[in-house]
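If you are new to this repository, start here. Below is one unmodified record pulled from the training split, so you can see the exact layout before writing a loader.
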Amino acid sequence: MTSQVSSPAEQADGTDGADGTVVGEQRKPGATKDVRRLDRVIIRFAGDSGDGMQLTGDRFTSETASFGNDLSTLPNFPAEIRAPAGTLPGVSSFQLHFADHDILTPGDAPNVLVAMNPAALKANIGDVPRGAEIIVNTDEFTKRAMQKVGYAASPLEDGSLDGYQLHPVPLTTLTVEALKEFDLTRKEAERSKNMFALGLLSWMYHRPTEGTEKFLKSKFAKKPDIAAANLTAFRAGWNFGETTEDFAVSYEVAPAAKAFPVGTYRNISGNLALAYGLISASRQADLPLFLGSYPITPASDILHELSRHKNFGVRTFQAEDEIAGIGAALGAAFGGSLAVTTTSGPGVALKSETIGLAVSMELPLLIVDIQRGGPSTGLPTKTEQADLLQAMFGRNGEAPVPIVAPRTPADCFDAALEAARIALTYRTPVMLLSDGYLANGSEPWRIPELDELPDLAVQFAQGPNHTLDDGSEVFWPYKRDPQTLARPWAVPGTPGLEHRIGGIEKEDGTGNISYSPANHDFMVRVRQAKIDGIDVPDLEVDDPHGADTLVLGWGSTYGPITAAVRRLRTAGEAVAQAHLRHLNPFPRNLGAVLKRYDKVVVPEMNLGQLATLVRAKYLVDARSYNQVNGMPFKAEQLAATLKEAIDG
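And here is the target side for that same chain:
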């Protein structure tokens, strides 16, 4: 048996090539087929949005996580609930990159494409490198289906796929045949073809099966016949891989034992990590968690998840619209809860007046924006980073709000805790900017120990805090903490702490309504000073070789940027990298960091919003590199751009 060793280039890059490097070949005792060892694989499942590709990919991912591989996923699906069948706009796909070492992205290009119909093949073939494996469901390649997507002749027969390892498999026929003993119509039996494909790929890559079998039994517990049919189809796919002559080789990708610190891990998506982070923040603050929300893609999963956790003191309110959702959340903040509202860009626009009200009332409130392609409805199931300037300035008047952005799906947990820390400490609404790529993507997450979580304990106002000239003691709702400039948080019903709230300008200290020009000028400036004074960590710079070029990113571009930087360093290039979590206020050392480099490149999934802020604040000629196609950057594409910047 050949031991598994990655090449030095693969170890240094650690991520995102289209190839899975073969590092050994063996024949297991009693086996009739070769088993090849790879250090990484990128698989893409693609079909109609009704073919169950997201479920298939999710199950393959769960088994891969339980096996111990590092992984990263990219679900990609239409906005329509049931997109037109057999059409290019109706294609749904799920890409999974898994490896025996640390990886950062879902991969640039798939090693394996599973295409359930002609539309899935045509929509994805442009991403598939020559030599990759393509598994197609031949039953769907009818003349009508091929004409619908513009195939004049069958791509399975015209030689256009000769450069690939093509596996034509009649998935539908095989599934129906496997389920012939069940009392199902042909249409009902055909729905299990995704489980047949999952079984085949599970055999092909030696994935565990116990978790999927348990999942199917649980999911269809009230429909035992359907559960049994799906289990049968899944096992039939596995057995087909084992017995067919078309698949002479299977593959193994060893667990990523050295990629993770010691601990207990689970696979987690960004939205799930955010939900868990919010619950943890409420427990660490010893406050009830209140979510006032209106369903909107891609943020709705947070509402769904939090609604399951009433046992942790979580209260969820699905409001009639976005404005009612944040209004209820702000009321809960006034009442002493850790208050949250979740939305996407269009919802932030509707919530803007109430965010301004929260700024004026100086109450802790978390506004979670899962960014998506815009403007207006735009591309609701695709990703983008175009809400940064909206988060910074999208309110009337001077209404500054801190902004926090997670970098990976698992990091959404920590970002939620950090946003809560700022909101509770400084009595301010906080924007948390995630996006569709992080929300729906997943990766392994080490479950933290309780003693690793921050102490977010809050002290409510209990009595008078100011002495008047005549010696009487009163409560001033806008008397500030000298360190944080936060005002006291007085829970309604506390005797003697009655005070005026609302959106009309307050008088400093007393909180009474004030139309004084001097007072308004003072309150505007002190609210800004409070945000400017928020304690955030200095920006860390990764620069092992003393580079002249700095790559500055924020949010979900972390994975592609880091993968591209690794590639360049492996090729002998010197390049520095820094990634921002805090976008308002910026880290105090950001200006000094920027001035150390001759060239600054800012990759963003927008038209240059962070670059605009950096140029304006620090007078640095930051070079913007932008993409707004609804998809995350590819590492190879970024590496080529950064190489041009280094050489330019």
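Two things worth knowing about this chain: Residues 1-15, 17-30 have pLDDT under 50 and may be disordered. Residues 94 and 542 are 32 Å apart (CA to CA).
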